[in-house]
Amino acid sequence: MATGPKEATNVIGLEEICTERQEPPKGQKTFTVEEAVETIGFGRFHIALFLIMGSTGVAEAMEIMLIAVVSPLIRCEWHLQDWQVALVTTMVFFGYMIFSIVLGLLADRYGRWKILLLSFLWGAYFSLLTSFSPSYIWFVFLRAMVGGGVSGHAQGLIIKTEFLPTKYRGYMLPLSQVFWLAGSLLIIGLASVVNPTIGWRWLIRIASIPGIILILVFKFIPESARYNVSTGNNEAALATLQRIARMNRAVMPEGVLREPANERRGRFKDLMHPKYLRTTLQIWIIWLGIAFAYYGVILASAELLERDLVCGSPAAAGEEAGDDSEESRSPCHCRLFGPSAYQTMIISTVGEIALNPLNILGINFLGRRLSLCITMACTALFFLLLNICTSSAGMTGFLFMLRALVSANFNTIYIYTAEVYPTTMRALGMGTSGSLCRIGAMVAPFISQVLMSASFIGALCLFASVCVVCAISAFTLPIETKGRALQVCM
């Protein structure tokens, strides 16, 4: 396998050796997918790829954030206790955790594109069924199935990673956060209009529309060329690369595409190989902690707004918002969001992109490890600052910064995980990491929606402590992937 000069200087002891390689005839020029991607460069194909695959974040954000905006309504409709509301979110991530490993394994064996399409079909189907839930039990089960479908959306990021030239990955992948932000803002905006008028069931139906639309445009994106060569399908990989070159109005490298096939694809034990064991374990810890903090912030925001907690004291029902007073006196004692609550949620959600420029600079100049360490440490600090008695405006400011920081954490770990593993196990590496991180997401609702009611300070200190552990783990990661070419095989 040919090795580019950048890879040679950044290999960091992880040279990928493929024993199946056959030497080309003497004098014949050859090139690898990595060299072709770098030669073709960035162009119109990558813009289309960014828009289509990035839009998977819109659908995913709407499905994940949906629970935060409908929880007060289902609490009221089915007379739920705190733990029952928390269980809904937990089961969504339980479905995500189980299917994430399975779909990651299947993606390494059968292709990223097929699994991505399957996950969207699955998610859209069960999301629509959720809107017809006759009971709380059915609602929980169907949302768990939606979580299983959403877990496959990570294949969109893998496809983007495998098509992007090395120097653009650190810039384009963090920009994908714009789509997650758009999805989050869209579901909050829709909830503010739909929930008080035609109800949460119609909100769920409307939220499934972006996913259905994306299914129709996936045909414009080809299967990953890196995946094709890893399975020995060099002809398909070459056709894809030639198509990209035409769209970008660029030229292909001279010679023949020659890259060895590797039959050892998508095996869980490869993640435990001595070469990757420490990296894998530390990545899992970081993913778990980031998800715990991220969804903890989202759900804590919803709880703070629903209960109107300022300085740790619940305000009397209907004390501030006159238009909410009638709802607050409902027989099931639920407190529904008013206009001011939705406005605060929108402001804090916008924070998810506030640090994107600094995050991009950090990722590309400080490196993935140090950048993640700094943002995780700052996340811990702002969790502790929430303990300060402040006004509603101050609370909104703290939540704004927390959303910005936890979003930056996710940006960095997504990029690092996609870069650190070779093509033969990249989807499985992302899948298992995504699965493990859902453990943190499953625990977060019980901290944000149950423990926080009993001990506000205790819940926030727990979040901060987990972030400190993740910061240390990020700083001590054994591999830096900044500027490092994507590896093909073990």
TrEMBL record:
<comment type="similarity">
    <text>Belongs to the major facilitator superfamily.</text>
</comment>
<feature type="transmembrane region" description="Helical">
    <location>
        <begin position="200"/>
        <end position="221"/>
    </location>
</feature>
<keyword id="KW-1133">Transmembrane helix</keyword>
<feature type="transmembrane region" description="Helical">
    <location>
        <begin position="454"/>
        <end position="477"/>
    </location>
</feature>
<dbReference type="GO" id="GO:0016020">
    <property type="term" value="C:membrane"/>
</dbReference>
<dbReference type="Pfam" id="PF00083">
    <property type="entry name" value="Sugar_tr"/>
</dbReference>
<dbReference type="InterPro" id="IPR020846">
    <property type="entry name" value="MFS_dom"/>
</dbReference>
<feature type="transmembrane region" description="Helical">
    <location>
        <begin position="345"/>
        <end position="363"/>
    </location>
</feature>
<dbReference type="InterPro" id="IPR011701">
    <property type="entry name" value="MFS"/>
</dbReference>
<feature type="transmembrane region" description="Helical">
    <location>
        <begin position="47"/>
        <end position="71"/>
    </location>
</feature>
<dbReference type="GO" id="GO:0022857">
    <property type="term" value="F:transmembrane transporter activity"/>
</dbReference>
<keyword id="KW-0812">Transmembrane</keyword>
<feature type="transmembrane region" description="Helical">
    <location>
        <begin position="171"/>
        <end position="194"/>
    </location>
</feature>
<protein>
    <submittedName>
        <fullName>Putative transporter SVOPL</fullName>
    </submittedName>
</protein>
<feature type="transmembrane region" description="Helical">
    <location>
        <begin position="136"/>
        <end position="159"/>
    </location>
</feature>
<dbReference type="InterPro" id="IPR005828">
    <property type="entry name" value="MFS_sugar_transport-like"/>
</dbReference>
<dbReference type="Pfam" id="PF07690">
    <property type="entry name" value="MFS_1"/>
</dbReference>
<dbReference type="InterPro" id="IPR036259">
    <property type="entry name" value="MFS_trans_sf"/>
</dbReference>
<feature type="domain" description="Major facilitator superfamily (MFS) profile">
    <location>
        <begin position="49"/>
        <end position="482"/>
    </location>
</feature>
<feature type="transmembrane region" description="Helical">
    <location>
        <begin position="281"/>
        <end position="300"/>
    </location>
</feature>
<keyword id="KW-0813">Transport</keyword>
<keyword id="KW-0472">Membrane</keyword>
<feature type="transmembrane region" description="Helical">
    <location>
        <begin position="83"/>
        <end position="106"/>
    </location>
</feature>
<feature type="transmembrane region" description="Helical">
    <location>
        <begin position="113"/>
        <end position="130"/>
    </location>
</feature>
